[in-house]
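Structure ticket #2291
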Amino acid sequence: MAHGKKKPGRADQAAPQAGAGAALPHEPTPPPRAGAGRAVAGAVAAAAGLIYLTTAAPGAWWGDGQELACAAWTLGIPHPTGYPLYTVLGHLWLKGLAHLDPGRALTLFNVVCQAVAAGLLFRLFQQTLVRDPANPADQRARAGVMAALPAAGAALIVALSRTVWEQATFAEVYALNYVLAAGLLLAVWHDGAPRGPRHAAAAGVMLGLMGLNHYSCVAFAPLAALVLLRWGRGAGQPWRIPLAGVAGFVIPLAGYLYLPLRARANPPLNWGDPSSLRNLIWVLSGGQFRELRMGADQGSAAGGLLGWIGWWGYQLAPGAYATPGVCLVVGLIVLAVAIGGLILLARARWELGAGLLATLALTAGFGMFYQIPDIDAYFLPAAPAAALGWIVSVRWALAALGRRWGELPLGPLSRAVPVLVAGAMLLWHYPRLNKSWDDAPAVWGEAVMNALPDGAVVLTGGDADTYCLWYQQMVLGRRKDVSIVGSNFIFSGWYARYFEAEGRPRIPVAIRDQAPGHKLTFDVALFEGTILPNLAAGRPLFATFADPLFAEYLRAEPVETLLPASYYEQSLYPAPFLPAPVLYRLHDNAPLRALSGAALAREFERWYRRPPGSAPVPRPPR
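Resolution: structure written out below.
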């Protein structure tokens, strides 16, 4: 028998898989028209994109988005693990949209990624509905727009879940990984027909591109491995096909060579300075974030698991009812149905079901062991996996009801239920995800730059204020005479090269390649190595954060209100991570400059040990 042909009627006569339910009686119908499927996929992508566009931030938003915009604009290196794919694609995207504000343009990149992912997931869900992979005997085709409504509704439900929607409203690396994940799922989804080395290489390349962008791709590694093994066995090429997939995976990872090659030129943003092998390994292994991510004990791991379960409920629950208890209950229901469907899937297509169950398990592991504030975005790969489980479960339930009560007359209204659910999610999530009004990062950054005199040095205290001023200077080209000193980086050896970049003022800054330990060590290093030398040189010194030592020893003076207090109550960005609303001027203290490092340490330690409410230490110190 020729390859690719099968005996007529073989699929229709096959016995159903155990537990999957018997095939329902049906008349043979033609397969759905490809043109209609593409049209509905385009409509789903357009609908999701329009929603994302109307709720996206108007420019570079707080946090990593501004830093990533700096990296993309300058072809630099952002925080570990460097994200070469996002940086290079973002750079090309910004060049193509040069007429737009770069922050807004990069946000649009995320909008497009998430919208395309919604269209791809529609095609995936449509394939699942056209031919149930958990019940190969049920080969009924479902054609026409009305038949596509359940798949469109499922795709929109996933697209309008909180975290998926949120990642489309500002610049971040996760949206790129999400659209690649949708493409990978579409590439590996199959009906059991043999696949060759080309298909394997394509799936490997998709996973490799994900790895070149973000390490959360490991959630799909078991799925890809199982599918490649299945394809190899089915085609009688148990080694050739998996090796083609491995080769496809490895080739894109060569893109990480961008990091050491670009670092040698010392671009304006050169985080970690991976020009040496030691620094490259440090960046690729997570840099200073490793300790934050892998330090979970038994108690925090259990809390992380509960947080992961609650995350599923949080995706669906209306804001007013999204309490931890409600989210946990809803999350348990969502996971129970999804896992049940994937178990059914595994009984017929073990590589797909087991691989997607592994995806869920690995994202649960992220929640248990990666102790970082933005862990929600690491769970994104699990969203389409759970949706596939739900589709299989619903199909199995309908088949079971049909066997008991006869085939159910599913009319247009019942087919539109998923679309109606997506519409409800749009209404109750919109107020809590709409960032279109929030131009505060631009307002804050511009206010700081306008308030600084010529040649000023400004100390920043965290990610939000540092990245915001970087964006003003590196991307918008404002105030190149100003020196931005990230006080949180002074114990990172690579940061010394930041001040060696072309065009930056040469100022005294002491950078140590060691852990700061106690705050006393940090304060002494900051005063002795940066603050006091710049004050002695007559440079105007400012700080974007308050510190009691600044008030006590440097007469910190508020000089500019940067944002109204009401903004901190309205912002969707976590309040503890927002920059301070006030800019402070720091004044010279000549007696303090006369002290050695050891004397500074004794002076600060004496100040730390003051009883609460006691009188200030007499000034100036001797």
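Closing remark: The first strand starts at residue 457 and ends at 460.
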